[in-house]
């Protein structure tokens, strides 16, 4: 199956070929024809499987045929939970649509609203937005939805986790009833299904990897260690193995800051990225990490969600997440698009419960390696793998609503989003093979060119 056989026309096919994509990924194979046919779609697939192109290519195809956006109008609206993701998705729209005369842009909080208003004035065919800023722009009459044809909720599950449900409902109320609705998510919880019932009509349901599974090419293991020894152990792992680009997850912003200081004091260049950081700092940190000038990026889940960093070799869970699905999302940051990667979790005795939940979710006992000199005095028990499905446990995180996509009033520092987007793109260029790269190299998705499928966990979906 080729992209051409899905009915995409040559300007889009050329852009796709320019990215080095050889053939559609499984999610793209199913999503592209459904979206092209104008159907509502609910699609679930693990991270790194190419969901963005799965909706963007057919949307661009459809939009290229109709009348362009009039002043302040939007034809396709894509809502994302975080600013970084909004910038990334808008960059993909620009890349896949570079041979088309469509306008696309991203709007999100934490930066000046005026330049965004200026861009909207001419009309935008593809608008990528975080919920809070979109509502602000609407309230200031900067954006109108009369011409709206398609709505996409990207990373819908995270959108709910981050408490955006009210904003989303407000946005839905502003849109014309007659429109196409697409929901993309890594996982499908009960909550998501509930939202979907109010949103999509007779949707085509696509689920490429049912349940929560981890990518086969990720080498996952855990280091049992005492809590107090974690940062010393991480320092040693980085130095002994000469890891050059590591994404480290901590559970809290405070924890991220503290760990960053500890790494820096050992001479390892590290930067924290989380919701309390200004947008400019976040953008710069991400760009520097992508380009290799920052060795360690310490992130909270929210900041890291949906980020596509080329060929990220190492992910470390400094703390285990409380929501087991987040483990799958976190390690989905490595071994993307067919590359291999390593995911290491530092686990202390008090995290036994989280560890058991994760092992149960992925139906796999994680390999343990005790590092010499870091033998734990508090033993982490072996978890018994039982195969009872666990109930979706999407913890309500009360405070996170402000950490991303925030309103313009807070944290407005006046950095121009356009420069930011350029930076994203140019760093992707440097990484090679990413959207924006001029030198197409062949790229594969996880699970291809391998016997069997990409799944590790065998549990059938119960969600
Ligand atoms: P998801 O949203 O499912 O997490 P993304 O859309 O961010 O995944 O895509 C992950 C990576 O895969 C990106 O770097 C993207 O450029 C690449 N990619 C997308 N489609 C293909 C394809 N058909 N072949 C090879 N690589 C692809
Ligand atoms: Mg995505």
Topology:
Blueprint lengths: L9 H9 L7 H11 L4 E4 L6 H15 L8 E6 L3 H14 L7 E4 L6 H8 L2 E6 L1 H9 L10 E4 L2 H6 L3 H10 L5 E6 L4 H8 L6 E4 L10 E7 L5 H12 L4 E4 L3 H13 L4 E4 L5 H13 L4 E4 L1 H4 L9 E4 L6 H8 L9 E7 L4 H10 L5 E2 L48 H15 L32
Parallel strand pairs: 1-6, 1-7, 2-4, 2-5, 3-4, 5-6, 8-13, 8-14, 9-11, 9-12, 10-11, 12-13
Helix pairs in contact: 2-3, 3-4, 4-16, 6-8, 12-16, 14-15
The structure holds adenosine-5'-diphosphate (ADP) and magnesium ion (MG).
The site of magnesium ion (MG) has 4 residues, from α3.
Could you explain how this protein is built, in words?
- The chain is an alpha/beta fold and 463 residues long.
- It has helices spanning 10-18, 26-36, 51-65, 83-96, 114-121, 131-139, 156-161, 165-174, 190-197, 230-241, 253-265, 279-291, 301-304, 324-331, 352-361, 417-431, and strands at 41-44, 74-79, 104-107, 124-129, 150-153, 180-185, 204-207, 218-224, 246-249, 270-273, 296-299, 314-317, 341-347, 367-368.
- It is 36% helix and 14% strand.
- The protein has a seven-stranded parallel beta sheet, sandwiched between helices. A seven-stranded parallel beta sheet has the order 10-11-9-12-13-8-14, sandwiched between helices.
- Helix 2 packs parallel to helix 3 (51-65).
- The radius of gyration is 21 Å and the shape is globular.
- Adenosine-5'-diphosphate (ADP) binds next to helix 3.
């Amino acid at each position: 199956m080729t992209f051409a056989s899905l009915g995409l026309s040559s300007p889009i096919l050329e852009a796709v070929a320019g990215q080095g994509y050889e053939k559609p990924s499984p999610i793209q194979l199913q999503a592209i024809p459904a979206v092209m046919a104008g159907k509502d779609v609910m699609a679930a697939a693990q991270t790194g499987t190419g969901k963005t192109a799965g909706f963007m290519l057919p949307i661009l195809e459809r939009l290229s045929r109709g009348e362009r956006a009039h002043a302040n109008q939007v034809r396709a609206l894509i809502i994302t939970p975080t600013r970084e993701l909004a910038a990334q998705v808008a960059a993909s729209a620009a890349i896949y649509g570079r041979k088309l005369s469509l306008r696309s842009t991203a709007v999100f909080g934490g930066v000046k609203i005026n330049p965004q208003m200026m861009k909207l004035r001419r009309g935008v065919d593809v608008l990528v937005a975080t919920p809070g800023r979109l509502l602000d722009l609407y309230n200031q009459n900067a954006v109108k939805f009369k011409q709206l044809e398609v709505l996409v909720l990207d990373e819908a599950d995270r959108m709910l986790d981050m408490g955006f449900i009210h904003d989303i409902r407000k946005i839905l109320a502003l849109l014309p009833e007659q429109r196409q609705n697409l929901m993309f998510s890594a996982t499908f919880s009960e909550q998501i299904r509930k939202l979907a019932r109010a949103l999509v009509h007779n949707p085509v349901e696509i689920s490429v990897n049912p349940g929560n599974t981890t990518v086969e090419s990720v080498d996952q293991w855990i280091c049992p260690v005492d809590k107090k020894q974690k940062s010393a152990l991480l320092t040693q792992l980085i130095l002994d193995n000469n890891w050059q680009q590591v994404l480290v997850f901590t559970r809290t912003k405070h924890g991220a800051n503290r760990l960053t200081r500890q790494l820096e004091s050992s001479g390892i260049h590290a930067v924290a990225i989380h919701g309390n950081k200004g947008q400019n700092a976040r953008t710069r940190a991400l760009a520097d990490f992508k380009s290799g000038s920052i060795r360690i990026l310490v992130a909270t889940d929210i900041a890291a969600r949906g980020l596509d960093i080329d060929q990220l070799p190492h992910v470390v869970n400094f703390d285990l997440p409380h929501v087991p699905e987040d483990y799958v999302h976190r390690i989905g940051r490595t071994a993307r698009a067919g590359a291999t990667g390593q995911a290491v979790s530092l686990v202390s005795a008090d995290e036994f419960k989280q560890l058991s939940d994760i092992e149960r979710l992925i139906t796999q006992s994680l390999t343990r390696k005790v590092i010499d000199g870091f033998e734990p005095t508090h033993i982490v028990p072996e978890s018994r793998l039982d195969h009872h499905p666990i109930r979706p446990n999407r913890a309500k995180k009360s405070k996170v609503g402000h950490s991303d996509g925030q309103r313009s009033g807070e944290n407005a520092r006046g950095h121009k989003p356009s420069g930011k987007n350029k930076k994203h793109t140019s760093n992707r260029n440097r990484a090679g093979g990413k959207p924006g790269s001029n030198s197409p190299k062949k790229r594969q998705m996880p699970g291809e060119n391998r016997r069997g499928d990409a799944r590790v966990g065998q549990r059938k979906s119960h969600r």
